[in-house]
Amino acid sequence: MFDYLIVGAGFAGSVLAERLASQLDKRVLIIDKRPHIAGNAFDHYNEDGILVHKYGPHIFHTNSKEVFDYLSQFTAWRPYEHRVLASVDGQLVPMPINLDTINKLYGLSLTSFEVDDFFKSVAEEVSTVRTSEDVVVSKVGRELYEKFFRNYTRKQWGMDPSELDKSVTSRVPVRINRDDRYFTDTFQAMPLHGYTSMFEKLLAHPNIKIMLNTDYHEIIDVIPFREMIYTGPVDEYFDFRFGKLPYRSLEFKHETLDAPVYLPAAVVNYPNEHAYTRITEFKYLTGQQHSKTSVVYEYPQAAGDPYYPVPRPENAAIYNQYKKLAEATLGVHFVGRLATYKYYNMDQVVAQALTLFKKLTGQEEVLPVLEDVLVGQNGHRLKLNGMGLHTGTKGSSRTA
Ligand code: FAD
Ligand code: UDP
User: Fold this and answer.
1) Which residue is closest in CA terms to ligand 1's atom 12?
2) Closest ligand, as measured to the CA of 214
3) Are 41 and 11 contacting, i.e. CB atoms less than 8 angstroms apart?
4) Is the pTM of this model over 0.85?
5) Any domain includes 29
6) pLDDT digits (tens, 9 = 90+) for 125-179
7) Fewer beta carbons under 10 A from the terminal one: N or C of the chain?
8) Which ligand lies nearest to the CA atom of residue 56 in the structure?
9) Is the residue at 297 inside a domain?
10) Confidence at residue 363, expressed as pLDDT on a 0 to 100 scale
11) How far is residue 214's CA from residue 37's CA, in Å, rounded to a whole number?
12) Positive or negative CA dihedral for 350, 295, 273, 252?
């Protein structure tokens, strides 16, 4: 009998497995349908011995000391500040747009004050900033929007920025100084030995059993457990009863080149050319020394593994229906980027998992056996074998 079945061995699932095992002495079974731990953060040495991120570039950054300190128990770090260039009008210029971007693009030598005035002069007035188009045109005007954002976003999301929530392009700031870092968070670093190695340490507790290549449907009726933590797509859990939630996918084309360096920066974005959005060269991220170099191209697509929730009002409305159902589902906790349909970075998922852990810690009351009501919303019975169920009095994880 496991105390917890955790579906998904990415950040959400692995952090909870670690906390539950090490702090509450719970017996945890963590499973993943993929053949590896670490979810989308999985990295590995490719056949040439270069450390690459299988599911695209993952750069760790956070303003949360709590998250950074927590992960620091499981990894040493390599300080790393990410920089990106965008290929626009035949030039490679800093992205996010900053003072140097404007000067290089237009052959000017403006000061910070002047570029601020320039942005104000071209900015469009938008009464309520709602969409990803509004965000950009209200800051830097239509021309820069079209050069840097419109086509990249269309490629990445398969829809126009005017159809996407403002939160999407708001991720990328605009600067009037020369700061060319992609992120400005307090903590910016890469796990010194990679993400997978950090996950191995997270999951190295004797109370944690790991089962890979396993979809939870395969084991849910045969392995007894008390509660479930689910980190897969929320619509899938409920058999799509309110319709499919759109997730954007990507195809990753990995390539190794027989040269020590390929790109002039870790990432080059291609807003207006090519079917791919960006190329990443991993050695910038990892600091690895090697005579060859490995890069990945990202080709956005609708079908395939679910990587990005698509932030727009229609989808939020569908998600809210699933959310209500999730909250009413006894003994199952939904956490992570797919299960809560949130465009979260890694640190936000860690924070969300730590928050759920605190909630679970405050909910140690043992309820009587509730076999009758324990038919999960997806039709699977949550087997208790008369052991009683740990769940809460507040919140509403019990089905009506
Ligand atoms: P996941 O990592 O997706 O883990 C969920 C796991 O559940 C998966 O391994 C999946 O196989 C498993 N699963 C699903 N269904 C089932 C099932 N039925 N049975 C068994 N297992 C199942 N964040 C950053 O902070 N910085 C970055 O630079 C960054 N870059 C990114 C680049 C790309 C291309 C992508 C796609 C994401 C990026 N992210 C980045 C976001 C980051 O990947 C996520 O925040 C984080 O991995 C989410 O963790 P998670 O545990 O919620 O989900
Ligand atoms: N974006 C863009 N042009 C760029 C970089 C980003 O239009 O050169 C937009 C695009 O919609 C993208 C969003 O800003 O999806 C967020 O960018 P970020 O780099 O944070 O995306 P992620 O790394 O999560 O794929």
Assistant:
1) 8
2) 1
3) yes
4) yes
5) yes
6) 999 999 999 999 999 999 999 999 999 999 999 999 999 999 999 999 999 999 9
7) C
8) 1
9) no
10) 58
11) 12
12) negative
